[in-house]
Write a structure and sequence with these properties.
- The complex is a heterodimer of chains A (222) and B (218).
- Chain A has 6 helices and 11 strands.
- With 222 residues, chain A is α/β, with parallel strands linked by helices.
- Chain A starts with 7 loop residues before the first helix and ends in a 7-residue tail after the last strand.
- Chain B has a single domain (3-215), classed as Glutaconate Coenzyme A-transferase (3-Layer(aba) Sandwich).
- The chains are: A alpha/beta (222), B alpha/beta (218).
Chain lengths: 222, 218
Amino acid sequence: MSKKLRTPEEALREMQNGATVMIGGFLVVGTPETLIEEILKKGVTDLTVIGNDTGFPERGIGKLIVAKRAKKVLASHVGTNPETGRQMHAGETEVVLIPQGTLAEQVRAGGAGLGGILTPTGVGTIVEEGKQKIEINGKEFLLELALQADYALIKAHKADEKGNLVYRRAARNFNPLMATAAKIVVAEVDEIVPIGKLDPDEIVTPGLFVTYLVKREAPCDE
Amino acid sequence: MSKDIKRERIARRIASELQDGMVVNLGIGLPTQVANFLPRGNDVLFQSENGFVGLGPAPLLGHEDPNVTNAGSQPVTILPGGACFDSAMSFVIIRGGHVDVTVLGALEVDEAGNLANWMVPGKIVPGMGGAMDLTVGARRVIVAMEHTAKGNAKILKKCTLPLTAIQQVDMIVTEMAVIEVTRQGLVLKEIAPDTTVMEVVAQTEATLIINDVKVMEV
């Protein structure tokens, strides 16, 4: 039995209104649906949500948008959830659109102890507005600041009892990055195996990053 | 010409640009169709920005793996020899110049090779997803689009919509023409067999440099 194993309710017990929450997944592939359900049940609101996209109205981060739990969203794409666009245009929710590669590096920087990163992406576009531009060897880069969060809610395929994680196929995406960049990291997993059952070489996220493990209650991905 | 025939013509022409061994990222929609027209035995490695290389065709009905989709959320397969990675690695590949060719759709392109394909202010603001990184990072950017939209030119002197990236487009392929972006401007390289240079010029707002125009293979 893993010391990190919690029910969804226990894992998110300390989550407060106004928390900043990173949520893994790419168009709901690799999204922790059980933990999203728990946020809905728990009733926390005014969240700042950081994720690749806002899923679909009935799936993934989309459910939090529809239930108006986010006051601010940082994402690279919101086109698959018309409700996000509606709330953005109506001024109900603040939506910050970020190039996907920049978002990935901002999260990585947040977990790696860096202040930010320099990227050529967005130079000459509206993405550069309000940002510092730095010229290196004659080429312009934007300074994009690191991102950190109170919670990272991630989805992995398998954990061992230490919290070491492996992912499946395209469900990896932002999950291993977010696992490094938050105070409390909750990993929703399909399966927990005894210590020693995962080969050290196959582990993608070392267990030291994982605060709690939660078993997925939504139908498994396999 | 029906929309489908136009799109097939564009995809087929772009497929002939892809060579054995290249790493290629295809955008959502029309660009995705390029993969259908690769010559048999052409070993192109397709990258999917949601986290793998070795992107293969759609699986047979009933064999979908919910964890294997393309960046547009459609079920796909990963071919033997493929590899999975996280989003940071995905954009190391994209931004770091390790993608040989990206094929992207466009709302507008202009004489300087500027591209606008991610938003129409006040109307459609889906977000840029990976398009800005792809446009900046890929070694060669090919735009795949219909020549005009509702009769309005899309190849302009200067883009009017918010840009995706500046001066990154290398080639534009439409159902009417193949245009290369050079430092001097847009060079008309090929026209479709069912059009004329005059007609292409009439449907294009940007100035076209016209020297040696070939007939596009369709």
